[in-house]
């Protein structure tokens, strides 16, 4: 089989669930770092596929703002699960392949689709599903669109379990254990709190300075710290010292950076590590 091109794939993002464990919040529209979850998914795949569809059973007008194609909803009104959204997408798309993704996976990357495509071709499969190293991730899958009749028959029989339908076909399992973060999603408010913390830590910007002595790097860094503090940006300074050192005192760079406004100054050497934290005054 020839490699699968992006023009042969339509992505369908599933946002049609009831979200009962998330207090019925529409998960795709939940804000994470001032951006809705579904926008993370769209940005990760928009250059990897020919078209993007959103399957949503509520808030269709809001979801329509994210894509050019009309938002699609299930043919039923009782939230029958991801296969119902997939079936609706299969009825509409004209590409030979569909990439199915949930709306609440903000950490996915392009390696997901690349791996799914490669494995589907290599195994000559009809469906390729991601595995995170611990369990199958059934809503992260690449499928042939011509499976529509089989899927409609399965749904008409009252079946809903996605993995059972998969195993009725030539199935390939893609090992994505090295990308476990791709599958971090939001099912509960606790998941949201953990993911918010993880993303905030990983997105901390880092600036590095390296120069010979006497090149005025201290002056530059003090000016930069002063400027950033004027913008109400919290920051920390980490200095590596090749020699033994004594803790903060006037005349030392760490002293100057701290008094320029750094919230935290850290100095380290081979045998010492010194953090200086700025504490808020308590009345």
Automatic annotation (TrEMBL):
* Family annotation (InterPro entries): MobA-like_NTP_Trfase (IPR025877), MobB_dom (IPR004435), Molybde_CF_guanTrfase (IPR013482), Nucleotide-diphossugar_trans (IPR029044), P-loop_NTPase (IPR027417)
Annotated GO molecular function terms are:
GTP binding; metal ion binding; molybdenum cofactor guanylyltransferase activity
UniProt: GTP binding residues: 14-16, 27, 55, 74, 104
**Would the keyword Ribonucleoprotein be found if you checked this record's keyword annotation?**
no
Q: Which Pfam families match?
A: MobB, NTP_transf_3
Q: Where is the MobA-like NTP transferase domain?
A: 11-167
A cellular component term, taken from the record's GO annotations = cytoplasm
Principal localisation: cytoplasm
- Listed binding positions for Mg(2+) are 104
Q: Determine if Oxidoreductase is one of this entry's keywords.
A: no
- Report which reactions are catalysed by this protein: Mo-molybdopterin + GTP + H(+) = Mo-molybdopterin guanine dinucleotide + diphosphate
Per the record, the domain comment is:
The N-terminal domain determines nucleotide recognition and specific binding, while the C-terminal domain determines the specific binding to the target protein.
User: Would you identify the family this protein belongs to, as annotated?
Assistant: Belongs to the MobA family.
Q: How does it assemble?
A: Monomer.
Annotated protein name in UniProt: Molybdenum cofactor guanylyltransferase
Classification from the root reads:
Bacteria, Pseudomonadati, Pseudomonadota, Gammaproteobacteria, Candidatus Pseudothioglobaceae
Gene name of this polypeptide: mobA
